[in-house]
Each structure stands twice: as C-alpha cells, then as structure tokens.
Design a protein that fits this description.
This protein has 177 residues and is of the alpha+beta class. The protein has a single domain, classed as minor pseudopilin epsh domain (minor pseudopilin epsh fold, 3-Layer(bab) Sandwich). It contains two helices and eight strands. The chain has a four-stranded antiparallel sheet with strand order 3-2-1-5, covered by helices on one side. It has a four-stranded antiparallel sheet with strand order 4-6-7-8, covered by helices on one side. Strand 1 and strand 2 form a beta hairpin. The longest helix is centred in the N-terminal third of the chain and has 52 residues. The protein is rod-shaped, with a radius of gyration of 34 Å. Belongs to the GSP H family.
Length: 177
Amino acid sequence: MPDFKKCFIIKFIDDLKIKSGMKKENKKGISLLEFLLVLSIIVILSTFAVPAWNRFFEINRYNNFIMVVENAINRAKIVAMEKSTNVGVCISDNQILIYDTGYARSSDPCTGTLLFTVTPESENISISSNGTIIFDPRGLNIMVGGNVCIHHNEFNTYYRIIIGRGHQRVEKGSGGC
C-alpha cells in the first residue's frame, strides 16, 4: 500500500474519532456547568451552616466567660495572699467586683478599694451570688458556703462555682441558678 493511501486512511480514522468523541483532547480548566454545580452545593451547605455558626460563637462566649470568672476568683485569692489582706468577691449589676476589704474581718465583700471587675460579653449571661465570698490572707474563704452562679438565659444552663473553706468546685446543670 502506498504511503499516500496510508496517510489518508490514518487521517480519516482520526477524523472519525474526533467526531464520535472517542479521541480525548487535552482540556485545561473547568466548564461552566461544573462551576455552577459546585457553587450550588456551596450555597446549599451554607444555608445550614450559618445559623449553627452563630450558636457556636455564643456557646464559645459563654464557656470563655466561665473560665474568666474562675480565673478572677483565683486571682482574688492570690491577691489576698500577696497583700496579706482580706479580698471580697462582690456581685453587683451583673458584674463581678473584686475589693480589697482591708485587714478587719467584715461580712460585706462590697466595701473597700476596688481592685478589678469582670463583665460578661453577652447580654444573655446573668451572674448571681449566694452567700459571702471574702478571702483572708491565707487564701481561705472567711464565710462558709459562698458561690457564684453564671446563667445563660438563651440556653437555660448554669455553672455554679462553689467556694468552700479551702477549695472550690464547679457544678453545672440546666434550668435557673
């Protein structure tokens, strides 16, 4: 078979492959259909993820504030030991106020020199207290049975930090304080 006929037959077969879709071309990039499909999947997933994202941030703010309150109580204890004075933990207007109450033993933790305050970041968080919390120069609570309760109004959950004579523990549950 002459070379001319061979080339013609090979060219004819290649043309048939291209027309029938058998021959693959080297394509780069994505098609418009693929792009729209991926975009629609992202939109559908984001409709479910965005509301959950806000709840996630609120839970994170609540847990962060609980740790801040525990840290503030521990810091009040340390300040009492460092200064060799009594330090009171006072709850007022949804804030935790830490006071240096002086050397005399008092039953009011809300008197003296204000050392620092702790305020919640979210309006859904409320703080309450039961009992009196005043640390003596040894870091022990003068009054027995004081606690700080942190309640989240939207989730209806609470964390109660119970301060004993020489220890503290955390209790959590659902409902009010």
